[in-house]
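Tokens as discussed.
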């Protein structure tokens, strides 16, 4: 008789495989694991642990939390493998979107402080004498200051854990393009002409009065309550 294909693993089976794998990492037998779970208020025996790991015993949320605690791991790690492909993809998109949204504020702050420092140097060029670098020397004027900063930044030490390796030049270019567009959203060209300052209460001499708003692009970026997706 022809066998019917088993089909993809169920969520329970995927969860059980994750539990089994982490139990092996912790060097616990099913009997020892059951004893620790029982101590934490989840009375089970080795047979029940086996059924959990085989995906034939459903696990309640409170039990899943206990399992994660005993295995000293995050519940999200155990559950992630039990999600469908569509659910995993949705979670990945949400993580990417949240990471991009969280980048907005530090990007704005970094851009503003770079602009503020260059502005201050342009008003006090004697401060150029306080800048020096063994390899680069010092910037010749305020206009070359940010390029000087960029060259120094390129020598910063970045650990392997802080580096993402793309699989191709095309993939690398696409990732950089997304990040570049994010920066452009938060760092924009001032469009108000200098003459406007004469008829307003904003002082062109004080970056605190105008610079931050210019870099945040408050007139160009709208934040609403609709969910953002990447």
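Sequence:
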């Amino acid at each position: 008789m022809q066998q019917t294909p088993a089909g993809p693993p169920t969520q329970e089976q995927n969860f059980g495989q994750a539990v089994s794998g982490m139990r092996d990492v912790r060097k616990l037998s099913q009997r020892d694991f059951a004893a620790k779970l029982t101590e934490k208020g989840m009375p089970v025996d080795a047979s029940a642990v086996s059924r959990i790991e085989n995906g034939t015993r459903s696990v309640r949320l409170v039990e899943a939390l206990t399992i994660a605690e005993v295995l000293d791991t995050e519940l999200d790690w155990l559950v992630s493998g039990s999600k469908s492909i569509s659910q995993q993809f949705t979670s990945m998109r949400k993580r990417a979107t949240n990471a991009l949204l969280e980048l907005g504020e530090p990007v704005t702050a970094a851009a503003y402080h770079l602009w503020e420092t260059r502005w201050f140097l342009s008003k006090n060029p004697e401060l150029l004498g306080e800048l020096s670098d063994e390899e680069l020397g010092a910037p010749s004027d305020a206009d070359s200051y940010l390029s000087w900063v960029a060259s120094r930044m390129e020598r910063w030490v970045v650990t392997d854990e802080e580096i993402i390796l793309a699989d191709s030049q095309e993939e690398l270019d696409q990732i950089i393009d997304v990040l570049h567009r994010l920066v452009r959203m938060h760092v924009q060209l001032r469009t108000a002409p200098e003459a406007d300052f004469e008829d307003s209460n904003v002082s062109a001499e004080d970056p605190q009065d105008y610079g931050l708003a210019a870099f945040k692009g408050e007139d160009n970026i709208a934040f609403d309550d609709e969910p953002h997706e990447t």
